[in-house]
Design a protein that fits this description.
The protein is mainly β. The chain has one domain. It is built from two helices and nine strands; from the N terminus they run E-E-E-H-E-E-E-H-E-E-E.
């Protein structure tokens, strides 16, 4: 993912608050990842505030929150880890060993008025054992 970012900050979606994440197409092998690769996204939600996550448009993932308002009464930050599958089945990528995993950490901070103040993203990869 090149230049991950929020489409429009914290939004009121069909059934509550959420965020839409988009990114630029990318370069090299990442540019050829098909849309169905991103359909495999999951989220590590230790906070218990994610209602759903999924690909909603090309290069757009939507995260819908469950009861975010109550959570923000106690905490003013949200850290979520988006998990993507190994790329090998989707592009011309061959490597020995087990599958790799790709991660996108999203960090959101909120004001005392529960307005989104900042969104940052950090990417990482965990190579599978050989």
């Amino acid at each position: 993912m090149t230049n991950p970012r929020l489409v429009a900050g914290l939004e009121v979606l069909d059934d509550g608050p959420g965020v839409r994440i988009t990114w630029d197409q990318g370069t090299e092998q990442g540019a050829s990842l098909p849309t169905r690769y991103f359909e495999g996204v999951s989220v590590e939600d230790d906070l218990g505030i994610v209602q759903s996550i999924g690909l909603t448009n090309e290069r757009e993932i939507t995260i819908k929150f469950a009861d975010l308002t109550s959570y923000l009464q106690k905490e003013k930050k949200v850290d979520l880890l988006l998990i993507f599958p190994d790329r090998e089945p989707f592009i011309a990528c061959r490597h020995p060993g087990m599958g790799d995993r790709y991660f996108l950490k999203m960090h959101l901070t909120f004001t005392d008025e529960n307005e989104l103040e900042q969104a940052t993203f950090e990417q990482s990869v965990r190579l599978g054992p050989i």
